[in-house]
Amino acid sequence: MASTSSNVENLHPQILKQVMKELRSLSCDPPEGIKILSNDEDITDIQATIEGPAGTPYEGGLFRVKLVLGKDFPASPPKGFFSTKIFHPNVASNGEICVNTLKKDWKPDLGVKHILLTIKCLLIVPNPESALNEEAGKLLLERYDDYSKRAQWWTDIHAKTNHSNKMESMEKGETFEATQGIKRASDKALDKKKKDKKRALKRL
């Protein structure tokens, strides 16, 4: 994951003002499926959540992403990372995102909104030719169904906010069933004792 050290002091005040202005605008009027997570202490550490697009293996997931502005921003592109684990050809094991907008196609006038929309589009149309996750890239090209199942499985585990709640509910359910089973067994044993006692009294 990227370094958490701040570059606020290294950026020109005018650049900081532009970034702050855009972040405020995005917070008030966010693109569909994208939400900015404000960090007033360090605006060079930009974080957001992206909803998994419908019709993709990432549907239903909520993915947290991070943009780190370097001291040369906007002459140099920010670095992009997925904080949420994701199975995707263009996302490395450490979360680093490989997309041309943050590489050779970068232009200083591209803003945060454009970057976040590009990352969202990457969830819809991955690019296996510039894969950081070679396994995901190979599956996407050769066995799409397997790729889709794996990506969906990772989404279910890591990106669905109710997953932990589901697991907790399942555990509670299993505990309840086990308790009920013990209770039923105990009731049966008690009932058997009562019947045996009645039979013994009848014999007398």
UniProtKB/TrEMBL annotation:
GO terms for molecular function: ATP binding; ubiquitin conjugating enzyme activity. Keywords: ATP-binding, Cell cycle, Cell division, Nucleotide-binding, Transferase, Ubl conjugation pathway. Residues 14-160 form the UBC core domain. Residues 165-175 have a biased composition (Basic and acidic residues). CDD domains: UBCc_UBE2S (cd23804). Gene3D superfamilies: Ubiquitin Conjugating Enzyme (3.10.110.10). Residues 165-204 are annotated as: Disordered. InterPro entries: Ub_conjugating_enzyme, UBC, UBQ-conjugating_AS, UBQ-conjugating_enzyme/RWD. It is an enzyme of class 2 (transferase). It holds the Pfam family UQ_con. The active site is at C98 (glycyl thioester intermediate). Residues 191-204 have a biased composition (Basic residues). Its EC number is 2.3.2.23. One of its GO terms (biological process) is anaphase-promoting complex-dependent catabolic process. Pathway: Protein modification; protein ubiquitination. It catalyses: S-ubiquitinyl-[E1 ubiquitin-activating enzyme]-L-cysteine + [E2 ubiquitin-conjugating enzyme]-L-cysteine = [E1 ubiquitin-activating enzyme]-L-cysteine + S-ubiquitinyl-[E2 ubiquitin-conjugating enzyme]-L-cysteine. Belongs to the ubiquitin-conjugating enzyme family. This is E2 ubiquitin-conjugating enzyme.
